[in-house]
Amino acid sequence: MSEVRFHGRGGQGVVTTSKILANAFVLTGQFGASFPMFGFERRGAPVTAFGRFSDKPVREKTQIYNPDILVVLDPSQRAWPAVFQGLLPDGMMLLNDFEDTKDISHKNLRKLAVIDANKIALEEIGLAIPNTVIVGAFARMSGLLEIEPCCEALQDYFSGKKLAANIGCVRRGFEEVEIFDL
After folding, report:
1. What's the structural domain count of the chain?
2. What is the per-residue burial (b if ≥16 Cβ within 10 Å, else e) of 54-76?
3. Helices H, strands E: what count in the chain?
4. Can you tell me the distance from the alpha carbon of 117 to that of 127, in angstroms, rounded to the nearest whole number?
5. What is the DSSP letter of 79?
6. CA 90, CA 17: separation in Å to the nearest integer?
7. Which of 35, 61, 70, 133 supports an S-S bond with 169, CB 3.0-4.6 Å?
8. How much of the chain is helix, strand and coil, in % rounded to 5?
9. What pLDDT is attached to residue 39?
10. What's the rounded Cα separation, in Å, for the pair 162 and 168?
11. Would you list the DSSP string of 86-140?
12. Could you tell me which of 160, 73, 176, 47 has the C-alpha nearest to residue 123?
């Protein structure tokens, strides 16, 4: 089972990212569970979401204290101690950022993936909502999903031109993410 903790801010699509990924896993015949943890429910407030993905049914719906993978949609949270808390050895991190990431390190971090998801989202959908770009980048970084189920999972959330634009986001996320072995 892969346990993923998502960090971001309200309005970035943090919860939707975990839901889309759970749907993508289900489309491949696997199992996925997604659930949020909210503090203040308002745009800009810190948001944490969780995802468990497995080839066996996922019954546990508790917070994830020891993630295998971290996904950070808000670049300002990249160095928060709470983000790295409990990261298991050989962990991975996907970061939405446009800056140099050489200062990111943690004793358990094995792989770091970086993408300027805000820029891509602005170019594709006209809004700096990085969630669907992150879905594609997650698939490539983790190696747990192919791109097609990620695109197909979007149909539960978008239609028409919005669906096409968000599929473009997923595809660009998959192609443009930079992955570093640490």
Report:
1. 1
2. eeeebeeeeebeebbbbbbbbbe
3. 6, 7
4. 11
5. T
6. 23
7. 133
8. 40, 25, 35
9. 58
10. 10
11. TPPTTEEEEEE-SS--TT---TTEEEEEEE-HHHHHHHHHSS---HHHHHHHHHH
12. 176
How many residues make up the chain in this entry? 182
| Residue 69 token pair | 């993978």
Cα–Cα distance between 106 and 109 in angstroms, integer?
5
Amino acid symbol at 49: A
Residue with tokens 């490539």: 140
CB 95 within 8 A of CB 75: yes
pTM of the model: 0.94
72: CATH: 3.40.920.10
Q: Residue 37: what pLDDT?
A: 83
Tell me the pLDDT tens digit for each residue of 117-155. 999 999 999 999 999 999 999 999 999 999 999 999 999
If you search the block for the tokens 């698939």, which residue do you land on?
A: 139
Look up the domain containing 53 and give its range.
Answer: 2-181
11: left (phi over 0), alpha (psi -120 to 50) or beta: left
